[in-house]
Design goal:
The complex is a heterotrimer of chains A (222), B (292) and C (257). Chain A contains 7 helices and no strands. Chain A has helices spanning 5-38, 41-72, 76-109, 120-141, 144-152, 154-174, 179-211. Chain B has 292 residues and is mainly alpha-helical. Chain B contains 11 helices and no strands. In chain B, helix 1 crosses helix 11 and helix 7 (172-180) packs antiparallel against helix 8 (185-214). The longest helix of chain B has 44 residues, at 4-47. Classes of the chains: A mainly alpha (222), B mainly alpha (292), C alpha/beta (257). At the B-C interface, helix 7 and helix 8 of B face helix 2, helix 3 and helix 6 of C.
Chain lengths: 222, 292, 257
Amino acid sequence: MEIRTTFHKKLREIQDDVLVMGSMVEKAINRSIETLKNRDLALAHQIITDDQKINGKRFEIEEKCIEIIATQQPLASDLRTIVGVLIITSEVERIGDYAEGIAKITVLIGDEPSLKPLVDIPRMAEKTNDMLRRSLQALINRDAVAARQIISEDDEIDNLYDQVFRELLTFMLEDPKTIARATRLIWAAHNLERSADRVTNICERVVFIVTGKMEEIGASKY
Amino acid sequence: MKNGSAFQRHLRVRQITGYINGTLFFLATLTGIIVLIVLIADVFKDSVGWLDWQFITSYPSRKPQEAGLLSAMFGTLWVMALTALFSFPVGIGTAIYLEEYAPDSRLRRLIQTNINNLAGVPSIVYGLLGLALFVQALSLGRSVLAGALTLTLMSLPVIIIAAQEAIRSVPESYRLGAFALGSTRWQVVRHIVLPNAVPGILTGTILAMSRAIGEAAPMIAISALVYLTFIPVSPMDRFTVLPIQIFNWVSRPQEGFWHLAAAGIIVLLFVLLTMNAAAIVLRNRFQKRTEE
Amino acid sequence: MVNNVARLEAKSLELWYGKFQALRGISLVIPQNQVTAIIGPSGCGKSSLLRCFNRMNDLIPGSSVKGQVLFDGRNIYAANIDPTEVRYRIGMVFQKPNPFPKTIFENVAFGPRVNSFIGDLEEIVERALHRAALWDEVKDRLYKSAMQLSGGQQQRLCIARALALEPEVILMDEPCSALDPVATLKIEDLMKSLAENYTIVIVTHNMQQAARVSDMAAFMMMEEDRAGVLVEYGSTSKLFTNPKDKRTEDYITGRFG
C-alpha cells in the first residue's frame, strides 16, 4: 500500500521536469547543427538566448529537489533519485552549454566559405541525441541494463570523432589556409564528443539510482 | 446551514431535555443534604442543655441528670486503638501480597472474590462470628480484646480493598523504572510502591475504622456491657462502647434519656468527623511531601 | 569508525507471551561504543526485543525466552544469572519520562542506594548529572521535586539515573516520543556523546531519528502470525541509502505500512 502519495507524486513531477529539460537540450543540439550546416546566424543567436531557458529549468528542478529534501526527508531509493536527479540535471545543462557553444562557433565562422559538406558531425549529433533521450528514459524506467548499454555505445561517438579529426587534419595538411576553418569544425565535433561523455555520466547516475552502487563504467577514450 | 429549520427545532428540544435532567439530578442531590441537615438539627435541638462536662466525665446512672458516657468513650478508644493495631499491618500486608507478589492464578482470584464479598457481609454476622470464635472458642470472654478482634475482622476486607486500590494507583512506570535500576521486588515495594500508596492506604484505613466504631450490632452480639461503672484498664477487661450506650438510652422510656442519647450522638459524630478530618489532613500532608 | 567489539549478542532469540510468539529467530550483534537503532512498524516486536536485553520481559507473567543473549560472552538467560544483576549492568530509559516522585538528588541516588554503593553519593550524583548534560540546569535545586522539571529535563534525569550505576549498556525505548523537537534534538546529541563511553541501543519509530543518531540500524517486521523478525541489519548509512531487502526499502520510503 502506497502511503506517501503526495511525496511520490512530487518525485515523479521532478523526473518529468528532467525529461522536459532533456527535450529542450535535444532541440538545441539539433538546431545548432542546422545553423552550422546552413550558416543561419539568426537561429544561432536564438539558440544562445534559449540556453537561458535551459539554465532556468535546471535551477527550477534544483529548487524542487532541495525543497523535497528539506520537507520530506527522502530515504533509500527516493534519496538516491533526488541526489541522482540533481547531478543528472547539471550534466544535461552542460550538454545544453555545448549546443550553445556550437551556435557560437557558427557565429565565429560567420560567412566564411564552407570547407566541406558536413556528414559525420550531423551523425555524431544524431547519435548523441539518441543516447541522451534513451538515458533519460532509462532514468524514468529505472533501467540499469539500458544505462550500461548506452555507456558502451559511447565508442561509436569516439570513432566518429576520430574520423572527423583525421579528415579535417588532412585538409589542414594539404592547405594551411583551411586551418582556421577546420579547427572550428573540430571544436564543434569536440563539443559533441563531450556531450556524449556527459550522457555516460547520466547513465552512471541511473545505475546508482537503481543499484545504489557508485561506479565508473567504461571510461571514455577522450 | 443545511436543514437549518430542523436543526434549530431539535436544538431547542435537546437543550430543554438537558435542562430538565440537570434539575432532576440536582433535586436528587438535595434530598440527601436536606435529610442530613434535618437529622443533625434535630439531634442538636434535643441535646441542648444535656451536652456538658458533667455528661462526659460521668458513669452511666439510673437518673438521667447524673448519667454520662465516660466508660463508653474510653471503651470506644480502647477498641479503636486495638483494632487499628491489628487490622493495619494485616490489611496492608495482604494488599501488598495480592498486588505485588501473588501470581495471577485461580487461587489469587478466589481470594480476591472472597475479600470483595466479605466487605459486603452484614456487621451482625461478624458479631456472631466474634461471639463464637473469640468469646467462646478462644475463651477471651466479653473483653476489649474480643471486641477489637471482632471489629478487626469486620474492617479488614475494607482496609485490604482500599490499600489495594492505593497500591494499584501507583503508576506502573515507577515500578519498571525501579526494576530497571536493579531493585529487587521488596526494594520496589519498600521505596517506590509504599511511599506513594501511603496517603490512599491511610485514608482508606481511617474511613474503615470510623465505620467500625460506629457499629453497634457486632458489639451487641458479643454482649458488651451496657451499664459499666469503671474504665477498662487492660485488654481483658469488660467494656462498653458509644453506639451501645446510645442505643441503650434510646430504648429507655424516660424522656431525659432521649436527650442523653442525642448528646451521645453528638459526641460520636464528633469523634467520627475528627477521624475523617485526620484522614484528609494526613492524605494532604503525604501528597504534598511526594510532589515537592 | 566501525568498532567490531561485540557488547551484546542475540542468538536465535525467541520470545513468547503465553502461546503468542512475539519474536522469532533474532540474531544480531550489538557493537561496543556505538549507537544501534531498532526501527520497524508498530507491533513488530522492537520494544520486546529491547526488553530481552535487560530481562525486563521477566516481569510480564507468562513470558518465556528461547535462544541466548550473550553479554560479555555470558548468556544472561542462563540459570545462574540473577536478572537484578543484568539490570544493574544494563540500564534502561523508557518511552515516557518516569522520574520517581522524589527529589532530583534522590532520583539519581536511587540506583546506587538500592545496589549498596560505597562511596561519595553526592559525587556520584553530580557526575551522572554532568554526563546527562543536566547539571547546570538543576544544580541549584537538587533537593526540589523532580516532577517540576520539563519533559525533556525529566528524560535527561532518567538518563542520569541510569548513568549513576555506571552501566555498560544503555537501552532506550523510544526515549523522545513524548518530547518536543528541541528537547528531542538535545537527547539525540546526548546519545551521540554518551556513545563514547557507553554502548547504546535505541528503539524508535522515528526513522529520521534513527538515521540521525545511530551507527548501526536494524529493521524489524511482523510476519503473518504477528511474530517479530529481523529483516535487515547493517550500518545506518547503508540501510538508509541502499537497503538490501525490498521490505526495508518499501518501509523506509513509505511504500507500505
